[in-house]
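Morning. Coffee machine broken again, so started the prediction first thing and wrote up yesterday's gels while waiting. Chain of 415 residues, entered below exactly as on the submission form.
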Amino acid sequence: MRPQRASTMHPTPWLAAGFLAMLGTTGLQAQEVVDLPAEDRAISADFEVVFRIGSAGAEAEWEQFTSIGHLGFDGAGNLRMLDAPGPEPGTRIVVVDAAGRLVDEFGRHGDGPGEFGMPMSMVVWPDGATLVEDIMRMGYHVFDPAGDFDRLVREELGRNMRPARTGSRALLGSSWDDPAGGRRPIIRYDLSSDEVNSRPLVDAWMPRSTNEGRVDGATEVEDLVSSEWGFEPELLLDALPSGAIAFSDSSAYAIKVTDPSGEVSRVIRRSIQPMPVTEAIRRAERERRLEATRNRPVTGSGEPNPAALAMINSFLAAQEAEVESMRFFPEVPVIESLRATWEGTLWVQRSTEPGAGEPGPIDLITPDGRYIGTIPRGRLAMPDAFGPDGLVAFIEKDEFDVPVITVRRIPAAIR
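Came back before lunch.
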């Protein structure tokens, strides 16, 4: 799949190495290559505000959010929000309709069936069923469309999970490890029965091995902390209405689009070069990560016991040591984020200079490679959730650092 990048991208030696590695293993499929225009065509980001809820001044008790990190729309335009302050009371899922009115609240902190320990992420299916990852329960809570607890799934699922557009209880996600020897498989998970069925759909490129082995003399806690790499190309993906997948797996501007079976049928490119990582960029990124590690709050109800506190401190110390010795890839990936609307339009957010305090430009592209235009830099953050009829939701904060949820509507012409 990587060979298609070579003709117009003038790859650096690192990208060329990836090209040669993939050439011998993938073979050349019959893939359409689409080169987008080099110049941006500006699109207005002045989208209609449908509703805004939350803030420190919210009068309704249900609207007083603590920490919203994940949300998702169902097919009726209802928005589900995971309000999860950590491993402590107050965790819940709040449901509002397409006008921002309260529909339901469900889920709570506790030890019983369907009660949360420490929820980390949430996926909402079109019919309203909801899956919540809970690391303290070592599984995933599944709630039916009415918000009633269905079951706890113990099998490990993937990361960066998205609801598949085909199949009532299907998910797409990338593997946590490197089972394919230099590849990152994108996997389809079927949760429609008690047993989870998983099937690899397509292998994305792996920029480095994640199976680096145990370091001699490392403690158990240190062994849990992964190596720190700066500007490693993420595997970005989203599901399309046809059952196809769009994904990006390198530093280049190259978006691969599969057919519903997982075969890559199209590569969408743009002649934008990755930014070289200078010593100043490396130094600033290392300092940024060290500050984030040192200032990370330890949440929980009450004081942790001495053994737990010792483990937490050991983990944070190991993480800080990894950051201090972190390694870097030679380029900043061009693509920072990749999402798809319910109608199938790709939203491709490009990176800015590391440390810049504003969102990068967002290219809007149809799945067949037609360039619609670009939302200019600094005008709009990537939406945190896309919904039907052009709805998009953003997680924001007010002046008191309290969550505010803003829902806008994308004009029909650019959905």
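The two ends are 28 Å apart (CA to CA). Going to sketch it on the whiteboard this afternoon.
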